[in-house]
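Why does residue order matter? Because the sequence determines the fold. Keep that principle in mind as you read this record.
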Amino acid sequence: VLATLGLIHLGPVIKRKVCYEIISATLSAQIFTTPLLIYTFGYVSLVGLPLNLLIVPIVPAIMILGIVFLLGALVYSPLGVVLSWPLAILLSLITYLIDLSSKIPFATVHF
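Structure:
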């Protein structure tokens, strides 16, 4: 909910300043959710924003491939398996990037 509020209220303001949709969306959602993350988990990630800038462009492809995979699996199960391979590659890429970023020294600040 907070991320959506950030996208609605702060996103357009940031977009006027930076002119890039991906940066404004990521930054506005991050700003609105950071206080809750600090309160809930007691730390904030310093690599989250740059990592999101790498991951967010991949998400639409994952969503489209997920729909194609689902439709293919409904038509013919082995077809669904074959169609899931590109999806698995993209999801593995995201997992790899997250795992790699978690190993960066001083990636989080604890409160």
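The radius of gyration is 17 Å.
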